Amino acid sequence: MVKLGPYFRSYQFEHGLEMLEKGYTAARDSLHDEIERTTVEAAAYEEALANGGEWIGEYDEDGRILWEQSQMYEARINDVHSALFEVRKAFVIALYHYWEDSVANWMALNGKQASHEDMELYCSREGYGPSPDLGAVRCLANHLKHGRNSRNDWLVRLRNEHPFFLPPQRSKIFGFSEDTLFKVAAVIFASGPTATL
Asked: What is the pTM for the complete model shown?
């Protein structure tokens, strides 16, 4: 008789990852739509101005511009880009927590704690990878979740222990691309039962 348990576990794990991907894609697409709408509105405003349309803004008592509509469009687009980062950040954390919760369930911990290393060892024994980059995902997720409000400086640890996981930073402000998010998803996928089927 065929044991269906491992196949069901694999199905559940993969389905959960697909649902997280759908959630991320819906949020991302909605924000991209907002950027597109705002860009179209900004272009229409600029075209109207070029054709003698009404300027929208405000001057101070000395005649200096306090704000004008073009700046508002630019600020809205910048806000959406910030929101896109926050969405990527939330989904990195969600992916790592999904892996932790899944492994805790497979280990039948029933609310007891297990270390990351114990969970990795369990996955290894079960043939569920884990990906060699799982430690990097742990560091990234913990940095995004806790920032510098942690005993561990997870970002320094990530850069020291996994120097090639993230591309080099191009600015002083920490950020990461959608490519990094997809890399995280691939690491989680390779660290569960789908890796064996």
From this structure: 0.89
